[in-house]
């Protein structure tokens, strides 16, 4: 089985390690790099996966998953450039960073696949969206689909759509968490104990997500089925529309897309 090194084991890097282990990969097939010895030791203790330096990752792993913040990419590219070979496949999870950045900074036509995952990877429910760079073959895409398929759903898009994808599904879980948080607050406002409000709202979110995933019905149809004539739901919907929640979501997701583009532009030269 393919050996995978995660370069930068923060939130998404750890989610990937954890998800791959839960999906059946062995600790010996995984490794990670990490700046702080204390965090490295904690991760090794928790997952049984070894911490390595970049040359070891390049030597021992076919797939190098870059999971540092976009702002931290330059030192990683500097470390990779002298040691990387075309037998390595670079899989970038970094928001905004185009495959052309890696192709420009790394030698030997190294293949690169750009991926936008999301944190539900931690529970095997990621949405990962992949795009091939210039030197990535169909086999490389299949390999990335196989790896990420063990931690959720995977689809391919042209790389030109990745900034929009980042705003939709990359950041998407945060919008749902924000909504849940606000709805729990509404429960508090109405005098419901916090633990009860949390139970009501989280199970409603889980149930609504399951209906969306399992029924194949359009969200509008599902919402209409909850919205009785002159009932309670339509009163709430009127307030949501009056406060511009739909327009706020459109503007929010557009702003996230713009930020992803900006992160890429910062590395153009
Ligand atoms: N969080 C998310 O929901 C998603 C994130 N992403 C992308 O994933 C990437 C990581 O995000 P996230 O996990 O949230 O960020 P984190 O800051 O949690 O993780 C990045 C990790 O990389 C480490 N790191 C930085 N530089 C190096 C280096 N030179 N060598 C080894 N390790 C290094 C950081 O260490 P230190 O803490 O010491 O700086 C940190 O542990 C980003 O590019 C982001 O765009 C993509 C989709 C979703
Ligand atoms: O907020 C961010 O920049 C990262 C990318 C997508 C989700 N989190």
Automatic annotation (TrEMBL):
Residues 3-96 form the Pyrroline-5-carboxylate reductase catalytic N-terminal domain. It is an enzyme of class 1 (oxidoreductase). GO terms for cellular component: cytoplasm. GO terms for molecular function: pyrroline-5-carboxylate reductase activity. NADP(+) binds at residues 67-70. It is found in: Cytoplasm. InterPro entries: 6-PGluconate_DH-like_C_sf, Acid_Pase_AS, NAD(P)-bd_dom_sf, P5C_Rdtase_cat_N, P5CR-like_CS, P5CR_dimer, Pyrroline-COOH_reductase. It comes from the Bacteria. GO terms for biological process: L-proline biosynthetic process. Residues 159-263 form the Pyrroline-5-carboxylate reductase dimerisation domain. PANTHER family: PYRROLINE-5-CARBOXYLATE REDUCTASE, PYRROLINE-5-CARBOXYLATE REDUCTASE 3. Belongs to the pyrroline-5-carboxylate reductase family. This is Pyrroline-5-carboxylate reductase.
């Amino acid at each position: 089985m393919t050996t995978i090194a995660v370069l930068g084991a923060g939130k998404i890097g750890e989610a990937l390690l954890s998800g791959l282990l839960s999906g059946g990969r062995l600790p010996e097939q995984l490794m990670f790099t990490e700046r702080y010895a204390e965090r490295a030791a904690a991760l090794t203790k928790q997952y049984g996966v070894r911490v390595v330096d970049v040359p070891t990752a390049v030597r021992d792993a076919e797939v190098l998953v870059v999971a540092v913040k976009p702002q931290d990419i330059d030192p990683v590219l500097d470390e990779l450039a002298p040691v990387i070979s075309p037998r390595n496949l670079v899989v970038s999870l970094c928001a905004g960073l185009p495959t052309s950045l890696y192709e420009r900074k790394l030698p030997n036509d190294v293949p690169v696949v750009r991926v936008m995952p999301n944190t539900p990877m931690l529970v095997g429910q990621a949405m990962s969206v992949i795009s091939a760079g210039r030197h990535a073959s169909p086999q490389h895409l299949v390999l990335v689909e196989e790896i990420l398929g063990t931690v959720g759903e995977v689809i391919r898009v042209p790389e030109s759509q990745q900034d929009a994808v980042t705003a939709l599904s990359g950041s998407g879980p945060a919008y749902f968490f924000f909504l849940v948080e606000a709805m729990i607050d509404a429960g508090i406002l109405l005098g419901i104990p916090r633990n009860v409000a949390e139970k009501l709202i989280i199970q409603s979110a889980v149930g609504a997500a399951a209906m969306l995933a399992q029924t194949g019905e359009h969200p509008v149809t599902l919402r209409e089925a909850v919205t009785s004539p002159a009932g309670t739901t339509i009163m709430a919907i009127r307030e949501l529309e009056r406060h511009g929640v739909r327009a706020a979501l459109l503007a929010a997701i557009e702003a996230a897309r713009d930020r992803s583009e900006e992160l890429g532009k910062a590395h153009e030269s």
